[in-house]
Amino acid sequence: MKRNAAATGYSFPPATRPEVWRQHIPPVTAPEPLNDPRIAELLKVEPGTRVMCRFRVTGPEAESPFQVSTSWIHPRATTVPGLASPAAGPGSWQHRLETGGHWPITWIEIHRARMPSTREAALLEIPMSLPVLEIIRVGTSGDDGEPVEVTECVVASDRVETLHILHRDESAREPWPDVTNVRAEIDTER
Length: 190
Prior knowledge:
By secondary structure, this protein is an alpha+beta fold. It has 4 helices and 9 strands, in the order ββββαββαβαββα.
């Protein structure tokens, strides 16, 4: 995640290259019932709860749509000024959440491959037979440690790759003991 150089806000992978992205359809920001039980659980609201929803189809200016992005904002944050404005472009609405009392937001991502819905395939201009990568990003408020937003990004699988940095657990930070010396010690003890 980087600061967005073109506007106040953030850019998340894959939108971190120096290229211009555009909206492929007019963005929509409106209260809607959150009926997806998985997303509702991640946001810690009951399924069917009306929450602020931000819907975008974006991608690099000279290319087909890259991602379908749906963000669900927890009801306790809907009073943040300017949050409901479609003009609160990519990444700037998270900045508004932070200035509205949730600084610093921390994020985790959950990735999975799946087949696209009919609507997703149409929006991404891909065949129904091409899998997508679903990236669920959960933003946790720095104020109360609870989820403040959940974003689902759906990307055609032929347009993305992921890079993961693995961190060593405490148990794996020291080198393995020399197995030869350990065997010699065991033989000596017998």
